[in-house]
Amino acid sequence: MAAVDDQTPPVLDETTCGTLLQKLQQIWDEVGETDDERDKMLLQIDQECLDVYKRKVDHAVKSRAHLLQALADAKVELSRLLSALGEKTYVGIPEKTSGTIKEQLAAIAPTLEKLWKQKDDRIKDFFDVQSQIQKISSEIAGDVEQVESLTVDESDLSVKKLDEFHVQLQELQKEKSDRLHKVLDLVSTVHDLCAVLGMDFFSTVTEVHPSLDDSTGVQSKSISNDTLSNLANTVLVLKEDKKERLLKLQELATQLIDLWNLMDTPEEERSLFDHVTCNISASVDEVAIPGALALDLIEQAEVEVERLDQLKASKMKEISFKRQAELEDIYARAHVEIDTEAAREKIMGLIDSGNVDPAELLADMDNQIVNAKEEAHSRKEILEKVEKWMAACEEESWLEDYNRDDNRYNASRGAHLNLKRAEKARILVNKIPALVDSLVAKTRAWEQERDTTFTYDGVPLLAMLDEYMMLRHDREEEKRRLRDQKKFHEQMSKDPEVFGSTPSPARPLGPKKVTGPRANGSANGPASRRLSLNSHQNGSRSTSKDGKRDARLSAPVNYVAMTKDDAASHISGTEPIPSTP
Question: What was the pLDDT predicted at 303?
Answer without folding.
Answer: 93
